[in-house]
Known about the structure:
Low-confidence stretches: none
Number of helices: 19
Structural class: alpha/beta
Strand content: 15-25%
Helix content: 25-40%
Largest sheet: 12 strands, mixed
Radius of gyration: 23 Å
Number of strands: 25
CATH class of the largest domain: Alpha Beta
Distance between the termini: 10 Å
Bound molecules: adenosine-5'-diphosphate
CATH superfamily of the largest domain: P-loop containing nucleotide triphosphate hydrolases
Mean pLDDT: 95
Amino acid sequence: MSDIEIAQANEQKEMQPITTIAAKVGLQEQDIERYGDYKAKIKLTAFENQPLPADHKLILVTSINPTPAGEGKSTVTIGLGDALNKLGAQTMIALREPSLGPVMGMKGGATGGGYAQVVPMEDINLHFTGDMHALTCANNTLAALIDNHIHQGNALNIDQRRISWKRTLDINDRALRHTVIGLGGPFQGIPREDGFNITVASELMAILCLATNIHDLKARIAKILIGYTYDRQPVTVGDLKVQGAIAMLLKDALKPNLVQTLEHTPTLIHGGPFANIAHGCNSILATTAALKLAKYTITECGFGADLGAEKFLDIKTPKLGKHPDAVVIVATVRALKYNGGVALADLKTENIAALEQGFANLKRHIENMQRYGLPVTVAINAFTADTPAEIQRLQALCAELGVQAVNTEVWEKGSEGGKALGEAVLASLTAPVDFKPLYEPETTLTEKIAIIAQQIYGAKDVVYETKAKKQLKTFATNGWDKMPVCMAKTQYSFSDDPKALGAPTGFTLHIREFTPDLGAGFIVALTGNVLTMPGLPKQPAALRMDIADDGTITGLF
Ligand code: ADP
C-alpha cells in the first residue's frame, strides 16, 4: 500500500478528535483553536508562562547526506515518537510543515511514511492551516509596500537597483527567479529587476521559526533589511514603518499546529524552512510548547547533519535556550551504498564493499555530532532489500565508534518496529551531556564559516567570490560581521559539489554571495550553485496526482 492509502484507511476509521489528542498533553478546549475535527492551533497563552521542567528531554533526529529520494528521517522521527509513548515515556513530536514545492516536485511530502505517519496527511501536505499562504502573503505585502513607497515619491531615497527583498511563492517555479516588474508606463510603478524565492527560503519563514512571541516577531520584522539608499545606507522595514502590518498578517501562523500520528501521538507541525537554503528547523514556539507539555520531545531538522543539525545546534539552540539531550542519526543501507558509489538503480543488490566505503559519510556525521558533546544513536531505517549481512556490518562499523546502531522497522510495523530504537535512545539519555558549541558568538563571520567548512564539512579552505568579498566590506562597515551564519549548500555532499559523495576532504568551499537576514539574526552564505527558488523536475510528482468526484485524493505519495 502507498503512504496515502495507509493514511486514508486510518483516517476513515481511527483518527481521534483533536480535543482528545490535546487532552493527552493537558490542553483543554479553551487552549486550542480548532481547524476542523483533526487539526488545531495551540494558543500561545496555553504554554508561554509555564516553566520548562528541568527533567524534560529533547531528542534531535538528523541524518546522513540523503540520496535524491530522501531517506526516511521524518518516518523515523514519527515512529520513534510512537515507540516512546508505547514504552510509557510521555512524548510529543515537533516537525516542520511541508512546502508545496517538493510536494508537487520530486521529494514528496513531510508526513512520514508507511505505518509511521502524521494525519490527516492530505491536509498537512496541501494547505494545512494556511501558514505558508500567510507567509507568502505577508512577504508579498511587504514587496508591494516597498514598490508603492518608491512610486509615491521615494521619501527614503531607496535605490531600486539595490532592493534585496524578493517576492515569494511556495511552488518551484524557475521562470520567476529573475523578473522585471513595473512595466507599462508611469501608472504601473517604477520598472526594476526583481525575483522570487520559494516561501520556505524566505526570511519571514526564518523569523516565524525563531520568534518567541508577537513582540519579538514584530521587532524582528522591523530589523529586516530591504535594500540600500542611493548613498548606500541600509533601509529596513522599520524605516518603512510597516512592521506592525506585516506581523499582524502572521498572527495565526505564529501559533503551533497540533495533529496526531497514526498511533495518536500528539504532534506539532510548525514552520518549514528548507535546510539547504534556509535554517532547516521547525519553530522555537512549537519546540518550546512540546518541551513544556511532554516529558520527551522528538524533533527533526532538514537534510543531513552537516546542514540541519549544524544549524539546529548553532542557530536554534542558543535562541531556544536548551540544547538537545541526545541525537539520533538516521542512516539507510541503500543511502550509504549510494554514497559508496552505487548507482540508484543498483541499490537493491547486496554490496558490503560499497557499504563500507559509503560508511565514511555516516562516520563523519557521527564524529561531528560527538564533537558537540552529544550522545549519538544511529537508527538504521530498514528497507526490504537490506540484507542481514549488510545490517550486521553497519552495526559493527558503528560499534567501532562506540555508537549503537539499531535496526528500525517503523515504516513497516509502526511503534512495534521502533521499540528497540526507543530503548536505545532512552538509555543514551542517561549519559551526562557536556554541550560544546562549535563557535563562540563573538567570532567573525569569516571565522565562523571557516570553522564550519573545516570542522563539519572537511574542507581545506574557503574562497570568496568577488561579490561576496564586496559584501563582507559592507557588513564590516555596518557592524554585521559577527552575526551567526546560515550556510546554504547542496544537501547531497559535505562539499558544495553535489557529486562529491562519501566524506570528501581537501576541497575548497566557494562562497558566491551573502544574504543578510538581519531580522532572522543571521547572514546566509550561498555556496556553489545552490538556488533559493528550485525548479520542477522533468516528471513532477504532480503528474501522478488526482482527485476523484467524491473528493478522494490519489497519488499524493
Ligand atoms: P525524509 O524525511 O528523509 O525526507 P521521509 O520520512 O519523508 O524522508 O520518507 C521519504 C519517503 O520514503 C516516504 O514516501 C516514505 O514512505 C519512504 N520510506 C521511508 N522509510 C522507508 C522504508 N523503511 N521503506 C520503504 N520506504 C520508506
